[in-house]
Amino acid sequence: MENLYNRLFKYKPEKELSSSENFITESFVYILDFSLKHSTEFLLHFFQRLGITINKQDYHKIFIDTQRQFETIYNLKAIPDICIQIDSNLFIFEVKYDSGINEYQLPDNPIITINQIDKYQGIITNPKLILHIFTIVIHSSNIDFKKSNPDFKDEILWHEIYNSIRIYHSDNHIENYLHNEITKFMEDNKMAIPKVSYELQNGMQALLNLYDQIEIVLEKLKIPYNSSFGYNWTGYYLFRDSSKNDKYYGWIGTYWEVDKLTFIFSDPKAQEKISQEKRENEFERQVDTKIFCKYFIYENEHYFCLSAQEQLDKLSDWIGQNYDLLKLLSK
Predict the structure, then answer these.
(1) Looking at the predicted structure, is the pLDDT value of residue 6 above 90?
(2) CA-based Rg of the chain, rounded to a whole angstrom?
(3) Longest dimension (CA), the chain
(4) In the list 4, 6, 295, 310, which could disulfide-bond 306, CB 3.0-4.6 Å?
(5) Three-state SS letters, 13-34
(6) Nearest-angstrom CA–CA distance, 115 and 145
(7) pLDDT value at position 2?
(8) Which long-range contacts (CB under 8 A, 24 or more apart) does 114-121 make?
(9) How far is CA 36 from the centre of its chain?
(10) Interval 90-135: pLDDT, tens
(11) Residues 290-302: pLDDT tens digits?
């Protein structure tokens, strides 16, 4: 099997390329390649996340490489971060860590701009080859790549990959060691679900971890949001749809309390319906504005005692239920 250090050594420093993305890409490909070469089941788990079912009997048909070059219909070279080929299926992955999706002016028509996913869609290859395009990112890009790229399949978040590695156990002790090391690396580099600890009561890092968790949940639930902050609050405005053209109709965040999160039912229709249906006893009310809201009390939920994944699941349930209720009351 190819050596990891040789994989990393092939990259030359360039201003346009992120060394961190190269490192992360090759490290992840190494554990995929290890699974392939040693016939372990991790590769099966990864393809399950892609919505694809494969068997170990298919392993001899699988080829994994990085930085493979293609010509495109745009007269631009395409160099996907990861390519995995199985028979007539080509899986292409654009990996992002500390940068966004790149854009390019067309050489023949500089007025037109395309992005990396457009470029991969325009790859010139065997017509019998079926393309499957994915991105692997820290946070959701909120770009609907499927509109103009029919072969774009999904956006994979790094914390999803982290979780799949963390819960996987192998009979191969070397693979277990590799997975343990890469999960530690991901935890240290904001690629994992951050755990919120009791330090929230006196520590800024724990507060930042809390907001990382909220953003992960909002993106997972596909709730449109914008950041919101002031001298005594910080949180997120919640919208009806991704256009965000209407005034926000919900809010989640904290007024710098150390004991709870607040979900505000800001929409006037929701406020009116709560009163009309005499449901006031189901809600709290803000002291100053008297607007109906709900609280997530950390101690009541035993939040600090949970693992990072359990914290995320509990937050996801609470935010999802309140957002669904907000939509219902705002009709």
Answers:
(1) no
(2) 23
(3) 68
(4) 310
(5) CCCCCCHHHHHHHHHHHHHHHH
(6) 10
(7) 57
(8) 114/74, 117/145, 117/149, 117/152, 118/74, 118/148, 118/149, 119/72, 119/74, 119/76, 119/78, 120/78, 120/80, 120/92, 120/94, 120/149, 120/151, 121/148, 121/149, 121/150, 121/151, 121/152
(9) 25
(10) 999 999 987 888 888 888 888 889 999 999 999 999 889 999 999 9
(11) 899 999 999 899 8
**CA–CA gap between residue 211 and residue 214 (Å, rounded):** 5
Question: Distance between CA atoms of 196 and 261, rounded to whole angstroms?
Answer: 13
Which stretches of 138-266 are assigned E, i.e. beta strand?
A: 152-157, 225-229, 234-238, 250-254, 260-264
How much is the mean pLDDT over the chain? 87
Separation in Å, CA 233 to CA 64, 226, 229, 249, 278: 48, 14, 5, 17, 29
List phi, psi (to 5°) of 213: -65, -45
User: Residue 301 is encoded by which pair of tokens?
Assistant: 């939920």
Residue with tokens 């399949």: 153
The closest of 215, 165, 155, 213 to 186, measured between CA atoms, is: 165
Dihedral pair phi/psi, residue 323, rounded to 5°: -70, -40
**CB 57 within 8 Å of CB 134:** no
Phi, psi of 11 (to 5 degrees): -80, 130
Residue count of the chain: 331
Q: What is each CA distance from 21 to 14, 66, 100, 181, in whole angstroms?
A: 12, 12, 11, 17
pLDDT band with cut points at 50, 70 and 90 for residue 313: very high
Provide the β-strand partners of residue 109: 106
Residues 6+ apart with CB under 8 A from 92: 80, 82, 83, 120, 123, 131, 132, 133, 134
The Cα 83–Cα 91 span in angstroms is 6
Q: Which two three-digit tokens encode residue 331?
A: 């009709």
